[in-house]
């Protein structure tokens, strides 16, 4: 179980090992795991430590014969924890996060606050509560995702992608790719991007 993080990490995978995972939309962390995302910021919990933080996770730990069975069990777990509430965020929080996404993290907090008739401090609190990250960190991750899509899906050159994603220059974007994904513009083919639709 990994909380909101601003750095990549590698997971050791051995032959014969299978795993399934989910990436939670903002607002779903607490309703599924039972605690606020900020309490797990920049942390990863494994094995018994993860189960002690969220005891219902123990139901996921039995062996399976197929990867599909593990996938189905995980989906069932998430659905049972979400229940009928498919929009745990308030309307205001959804609008604030949508503004961050629509601008790919390029709009300053003050501008987003002004657009919604709120103080910058209120926007900061809303983002931190929903994502577990300060607005600047959240915006940088959105900007990183945009750069990855521009490079991989739209096949822009690194310099074009840097400009379009809002980086100062190509070196600035390359630094962000390394920090957030352990990648470089030349090494994107094996990267998987998860979107809010997946």
From TrEMBL:
<dbReference type="InterPro" id="IPR050204">
    <property type="entry name" value="AraC_XylS_family_regulators"/>
</dbReference>
<feature type="domain" description="HTH araC/xylS-type">
    <location>
        <begin position="91"/>
        <end position="191"/>
    </location>
</feature>
<dbReference type="Pfam" id="PF12833">
    <property type="entry name" value="HTH_18"/>
</dbReference>
<keyword id="KW-0238">DNA-binding</keyword>
<dbReference type="InterPro" id="IPR018060">
    <property type="entry name" value="HTH_AraC"/>
</dbReference>
<dbReference type="InterPro" id="IPR009057">
    <property type="entry name" value="Homeodomain-like_sf"/>
</dbReference>
<keyword id="KW-0805">Transcription regulation</keyword>
<keyword id="KW-0804">Transcription</keyword>
<protein>
    <submittedName>
        <fullName>AraC family transcriptional regulator</fullName>
    </submittedName>
</protein>
């Amino acid at each position: 179980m990994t909380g909101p993080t601003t750095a990549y990490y590698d997971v050791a995978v051995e032959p014969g090992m299978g795993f399934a995972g989910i990436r939670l939309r903002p607002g779903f962390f607490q309703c599924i795991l039972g605690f606020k995302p900020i309490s797990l910021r920049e942390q990863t919990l494994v094995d018994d430590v993860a189960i002690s933080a969220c005891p219902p996770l123990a139901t996921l730990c039995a062996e399976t014969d197929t990867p599909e069975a593990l996938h189905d069990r995980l989906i069932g777990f998430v659905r049972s924890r979400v229940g009928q509430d498919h929009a745990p965020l308030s309307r205001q929080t959804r609008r604030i996060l949508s503004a961050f996404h629509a601008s790919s993290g390029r709009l300053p907090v003050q501008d987003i606050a002004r657009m919604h008739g709120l103080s910058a401090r209120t926007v900061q609190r809303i983002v931190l509560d929903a994502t577990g990250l300060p607005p600047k960190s959240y915006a940088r991750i959105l900007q990183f995702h945009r750069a990855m899509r521009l490079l991989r899906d739209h096949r822009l050159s690194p310099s074009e992608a840097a400009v379009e994603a809002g980086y100062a220059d190509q070196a600035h974007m390359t630094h962000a790719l390394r920090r957030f994904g352990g990648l470089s513009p030349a090494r994107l083919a094996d990267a998987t991007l998860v979107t809010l639709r997946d």
